[in-house]
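Technical annex B. To support the medicinal chemistry partners, we prepared a structural model of the target in complex with S-adenosylmethionine, based solely on the information shown next.
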Amino acid sequence: MKKADDDPPLCELKKATNGIMYIDPAGPERPETIRCEGKTYSRFMDFIYISKSAEELSEDEVLAVNKLREQFIQKMPHWEINISVRAKFLRVIDSLVINSVLEIGPDSNPLFPDSGHKFKEYFTADLDLESVDLLSSKGIKSFHFNLNAPLPLPDSSIDLVVALFVFQFPISIQQIKEIRRVVKPDGAVMANVYRRDQRSRDELRAQFLEVGLHCKVIPDGSHLCRDHEYWCLSVNEDSNLLRVVIEGMTNNDREK
Ligand SMILES: C[S@@+](CC[C@H](N)C(=O)[O-])C[C@H]1O[C@@H](n2cnc3c(N)ncnc32)[C@H](O)[C@@H]1O
């Protein structure tokens, strides 16, 4: 591919809101970078282009990216990857004996969209108020969650916190403290992380450790997306639940 800095854009960029750009999702080309109006934009989620790294986006930019994603989601190759990682998460969760699950960042696409799950309590929490309203209207207990909106849940009340395709975005230390506060000491947090560079991953892991959440990183042997890995965290490194989550995340690729 030509070097974007030196060359005119290969595709026409369209403007979404808050400085987020995109190209026609059905178009033939998806260059890694596009130069437009003096800025270099990098491809993110197939057809969206951002001028900084995903973990540096502001909350409004995160919302704009996810609105676009939602609009075109079923047409994106990325969607197949989401289905695959989602299936892996669901298999692991299915193997756990737990009562309460908190899903961070479900958007309109929660892991458990109907009441047919086995948990006593299933909550979701997202910084996108529209998603919160949508899921609430479907009977899912859904909370607004961001830097200034803590989780309305008691301390040590949640067995498993899950975040699927969320930690590529910024997570504030206030939110990390909230996750630590609500998860049971023997509970676990499972998430996938991609795109972040090594320094950014190290910093995020250090923040989790600072609040007492130990992190075991499992590289994705299938390399489903860029620098993709699974993170399993717990306050108690010897927690039985953590052990089962780690085993599931490590082993069940071959079931695909
Ligand atoms: C890429 S979507 C993933 C949606 C869904 N989990 C899936 O895999 O299809 C990311 C979601 O996480 C939410 N999100 C991103 N950063 C967040 C944060 N720091 N706190 C809460 N929600 C966040 C976004 O609003 C969006 O709904």
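Notes passed to the chemistry partners:
Residues 77-94 form the longest helix (18 residues).
The first strand starts at residue 14 and ends at 15.
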